[in-house]
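Thread: Newbie trying to understand structure tokens

Hi all, I'm a second-year student working on a class project, and my supervisor (Dr. K.) asked me to get a predicted structure for one chain before our next meeting. I've only ever worked with sequences, so writing a 3D structure as a token string is new to me. If someone could post the tokens and maybe explain what I'm looking at, I'd be very grateful. Here's the chain:
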Amino acid sequence: MKFYNKIIIALVLLMPVQAVAAPKRAVKQTGPSVEELIAEGRQAFMNYDFKLAGSLFAEARKKAKKNVPEELESAENDLMKAENFMERVEKIVILDSIALPKADFFKAYKLPVSSGYLSGPDALPVEMDDVDYVFTNEDSDYKLWAQPDTAGNYVLMESSRLTDGSWATPASLPDILDEDADAFYPFMMPDGVTLYFASDNEQSLGGLDIFVATRDATDGSFLQPQNMGMPYNSPYDDYMLAIDELNGVGWWATDRNQLGDSITVYLFKTNDIRSNYNVEETENLPEKARVYNYRETWGDNDYTPLLEEISEIVPGPVTRQIDFVFPLPKGRVYYTLDDFKSDSGRRMMKKYLAAESAFNTGQEKLSDLRRQFAETHSATLKSRIRTLEKEIEQERETLRKLRSEVYRAEK
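---
Reply by user tm_fold:
Sure, no problem. This is what the structure looks like when written as tokens:
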């Protein structure tokens, strides 16, 4: 038995050994993560390499499978808008490029008086917080600015000077200009209906973009704002476009050149009719959209004389005495009695001012009586209110007649 046992043991030892299966290990993912791909795509997007950005976002979406992060969807949306804007890059001549601290950028805008003027919060009609820029029109009787509302969102505000020289209570512009977004840096054209401003709404390229909106002169409403497109707008912040119709030039500011605390202000020639680059025939279109070399836009032309002429412009309001604001036909506005050309016009204006003062006093008295009546419901007060309302209506008609008399006398 011992002999056979030894043979069995020997045979067992000679049998091949079965390998023991090792526990399965997780396969290590290779390549960049979804977050890294999005970051690389964003960087390519900011560098105007939209083709590379698209491929990186597509790879990120493929790797994310069904768990697509909101950041990727937002990046893809911005890329789609940028690619659409690249189809219609406006062909403009850029005359100059100026780098300066952001806090003082509007001081570089050399606008003639006819375009209005730009200034800091000291130009506000009333004291307000969190306002750093104010637009005032040529006649110094209309102002625009941006300030935060009760929810902390920046909205555009306006105020007009009244005939007695005081300013109307500031009011916000229609919500269509700042719906679900912030609105900044307004500039109103002399026509009083064309408004440029900056916003970070859904139509922007991810930061502040410049928009234009048209106002209905009859009711003050605005049509849907339109994005100005490229080269004015970029994946960076772009703001404060102002037009000088007198010299046929415009200004806008941007931080696309990444100059730290400074930004770039461009001076450009305005086009009577928009002309876009031909996408199929234009080389280096992304460089033109980004304004990589503004001197290339000059071609063989020399714009030095125009630059010298603009450099001599002294921006700012016309310093003058303002006793009242009295608009006349054909766009004329009188501010003092000395502005009148005729003695009869001057005499009629004195009567008009006296009647206006009496009318304003009656309005204040009527408001006071109405407040008292709301508290007491007195029959006597009710009778006085009715009497005063009739008197005020008669005074209103007197003002209309006197205004017509002033027009006729000054005609």
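A couple of things are worth pointing out once you decode it. The CA atoms of residues 116 and 222 lie 21 Å apart. Confidence is low (pLDDT under 50) at residues 7-13. Feel free to ask follow-ups in this thread.
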